[in-house]
Design brief:
alpha+beta, 2 domains, three-stranded mixed β-sheet, 15 strands, flat
Length: 403
Amino acid sequence: MGRGILIVVVVLLLIPVLFTLMLPPLAFGGLTASGSPGRPVLNDNAAIIQNISDIAFAVNQVLSEGITDAEERIAQDFSTTGGDHYEIINPYAAGMSVNTNAFIAQYCAAMEESWDAISLADMQAILRQGKSNLYSYTRTSEIRTVEDDDPETPDVVETKEETWYIYTLSYNGEDYFAGTVFHLTDEQKALAGDYAQNLSLFLGDGMSQYTEYGGATITSLGNVRFTDGATEVVYFNQLDERWANKPYGTDNIGGYGCGPTAMSIVISSLTDDMVDPAEMAEWAYQNGGWCSRSGSYHALIPNAARAWGLNVEGCTASKPQRIVDALTEGKLVVAIMTKGHFTSGGHFIVLRGVTAGGKVLVADPASYTRSQKQWDLSIILNEASTRAGAGGPFWIIGGRSLS
C-alpha cells in the first residue's frame, strides 16, 4: 500500500516535467530556472502566455532588423550595376504573417537537451546572426523616360532615359530557417513540428481572438455614445463598414480586431483623443500588439493604455468587488473572454458601467446588440479567460497617469 502511494506521489511530481517536455522550454522562460525567484512556475499559464508575447515582440524586432539588412545588401548590389537609380518593392511594409510558434519550436529543438542555455536573449542572438537569411530579393531592370529639368531653360520640357533597377523583397519563411538559421537535422525538424503543434494546442483560448466575420460588414453606425454608465462611452464596432476590411497586420479588423477596437473605445472615452479602430490597429501593429491569425497579444491592453497616459491595473476574476468599484468610479475595464455568451473563441470586450441593481454594462466591439444589454456579473467572471497574460483577464483603466 505504501509503495502504491509512493508511485502516485512520484507521478504527480513528474506531471509538470512531463507537461514541459511536450512544449518548447522557451515558453517557460527556460526550464532549469523556472520556479526560481523572478522566474515563472511551470504551471502558471498566465506567465507562460506572457512569455510567448515577449518572444513574439522580440522576433518581430529581429525581423525588422532583417529588412534593414536586406536593404543594405540591395544598396551594395546596386552600387555594382552602374545604373542610375533603384527602388525596393517591400510587400511587408504594411505587415506580414509570422509563425512565432515555429521560431520558438525550432530554436528549442536545436538546443536539444541544453536546457540550461535556453533563453530569449540567446534565441535573438542566433536570429541576428542569421539576419541575411531572413529575406531574399530579386532584381530586374528597366529603362525609364524622365523629365530632364534644365535650370537654364525652365520653360522647355526635355526628357532623358535612365536605367532603373527594381528589387523585390521576399520573406524566406520559417521552414527555410530550420536549415539555414537553426541548422536542424531531420530528427530535430520533426521535434520542432511536434513542439509547434503542441504549443498551438496549449495556447488555445489563451491567445486567439476572432469573430465569425466572412467579409460581411454592418452599415456604418455613425457616432454612437452610451450615457447610461458613470462615464460617457464612445462606441466603435469592428464590423463597421468604415474599417472592417482595413488591415490589422496581414489580417483584417473585422475578423481579428477586437483588441484594438476595445482600446479605441477606451482611449476615445477617457482622453481627448478620438482614435478609431483603424488608427488603433495601425498603432497596435507598429508597437507589437498584433498576433498573426490570433488577434492581439494581451499586452496590447496595458501598453496602449499607458501610451495614452492612462493608469491601468490588472485584475483577476477572484476580485469582483474591485471591478464593481472601478466601474462605479467611472473607470473602464477591458476583459478577455472565452467561449460563452460573447464569443466562440476569444474576445476582448469593455465593461463600461454597473447599474443600481448590480448589472454590468458592456461595450462589445463585435455586437451593438450585446452592448445594449445588462449582464450578470457572474457571467462575465465565469467566462473570462483563465489563461490571460499581461495581468489579465481584467484590466482596470481610468485617470491620467502623473508620470
